[in-house]
Amino acid sequence: MNVKQRTIQSEIAISGIGLHTGKIVNMTIKPAAEFHWYKFKRVDLEGQPVVAVDADNVTDTSRGTTITQNGASVSTIEHLMAAFVGLQIDNALIEIDGPEVPILDGSSKIYLEKLLEVGFVDQEADRDYYEIKDNIAYVEKDRKVEIIAMPLDGYRLTCMIDFNSPVLGSQHAAISNISEFQNEIASSRTFCFLHELESLLNHNLIKGGDLSNAIVIVDKEVSKEELDKLSGLFNKSVEVANEGILNNIQLRYQNEPARHKLLDMIGDLALVGRPLKGHIMAARPGHAANAAFAKKIKAQIKRDRNRKHTKVYDPNMTPVYDTVQIMNILPHRQPFLMVDKILELSETHVIGLKNVTMNEDLFMGHFPGAPVFPGVLQIEAMAQTGGILVLNTVPDPQNWLTLFLKIENARFKNQVTPGDTIIFHLELLEPIRRGIARMKGVGMVGDKVASEAELMAQIVKVKGN
């Protein structure tokens, strides 16, 4: 049984202080459509720019994860993202009136409680998992960071931290299934070392830190003068507890720092843009490594998508539609009919074929001394192939037209010349809604990619029919 995507049932308002800015931030988390994933909208800025949670948008990982897009940034996103992933929420829009997500208690606990209060609603589309098929590894030798993703039918995470600290030592945390996040990981708070705290204070950072939202590890001798100074800064009596931490808070778990690193990792891996299936094992992870690893997974997703299209089809195989049948569906005619055969057709993909021959009229004017099949006509042929897929969803397709709305990310990688056969593979990026289809198309000559693009088209009824 396929698991459906889900979003929240109704919107949630959350306010709190940003850890580093020290300013009150107001957020409204809203339900979002299928395949939306997580996006922020900076409602305090002109034009209310949207920032997508995507590894390609990461601009800073020094004190949390910051993403930037359309001239706007949002920082410290990881604890909220972990709550979404931990509750297996697929789609949400976060309207925010400042540059930083509220720190709250330094964990995901309050976010998780608020989300649970409103509940969830299942959507029509199946959850868009990316399943790890082969090991994906990331290593930073100088920092002794290692992260590896391995195949698993589920989402399991294991984390080890080792700061060469007499107080922390080595700590491990793990969950065998993402459903354990709520009870085992969500309430684990962020932590820092006392010397880091002093440095941040000296540089006028952590303005929102009030010693209630972080575990402070004391890994050196501290004088009474230093403790008095901290007491004055935070307006609170500060001492070193037996566990080697400041007495500002009590540990929720003996290995709370390791559990929080696991929380951060879950939140940061939301940057992949899809829910994951696999076992992630990490040694000494941090925001920079997590973001780099998310990028590596994204790159693998792209390779996998392209690998799907490298299947070499036999041009002589029995087609689903031949040229005459195609002309019963598409309104195009020579010299502008660009598809000769349909080799495969399903509800979500189509494979079409175009034979490029020297006797086509266009070669009289397009580099006649060195004929090349134009890239724009490759896109047209790709679109006509996609048109077969879209028109296959309506009765009497001859009474409908497919019209371009948008072409994005078009690339031309290898020349196509007379004598070549181009195989076009188009796949829906999301379900067709209100006659609008978004497709990813790839044109192959043999085992080489000739062209690729993302297309958006709309089907409209022919006037008079």
TrEMBL record:
The gene is lpxC. It holds the Pfam family FabA. Involved in unsaturated fatty acids biosynthesis. Catalyzes the dehydration of short chain beta-hydroxyacyl-ACPs and long chain saturated and unsaturated beta-hydroxyacyl-ACPs. Pathway: Glycolipid biosynthesis; lipid IV(A) biosynthesis; lipid IV(A) from (3R)-3-hydroxytetradecanoyl-[acyl-carrier-protein] and UDP-N-acetyl-alpha-D-glucosamine: step 2/6. It comes from the Bacteria. CDD domains: FabZ. It catalyses: a (3R)-hydroxyacyl-[ACP] = a (2E)-enoyl-[ACP] + H2O; a UDP-3-O-[(3R)-3-hydroxyacyl]-N-acetyl-alpha-D-glucosamine + H2O = a UDP-3-O-[(3R)-3-hydroxyacyl]-alpha-D-glucosamine + acetate. It is found in: Cytoplasm. Keywords: Cytoplasm, Hydrolase, Lipid A biosynthesis, Lipid biosynthesis, Lipid metabolism, Lyase, Metal-binding, Zinc. Its cofactor is Zn(2+). Its EC number is 4.2.1.59, 3.5.1.108. Belongs to the thioester dehydratase family. FabZ subfamily. Belongs to the LpxC family. InterPro entries: FabA_FabZ, FabZ, HotDog_dom_sf, Ribosomal_Su5_D2-typ_SF, UDP-acyl_GlcNac_deAcase, UDP-acyl_GlcNac_deAcase_C, UDP-acyl_N-AcGlcN_deAcase_N. This is Multifunctional fusion protein. PANTHER family: UDP-3-O-ACYL-N-ACETYLGLUCOSAMINE DEACETYLASE 1, MITOCHONDRIAL-RELATED. Zn(2+) binds at H79, H260, D264. Its main location: cytoplasm. The active site is at H287 (proton donor), H366.
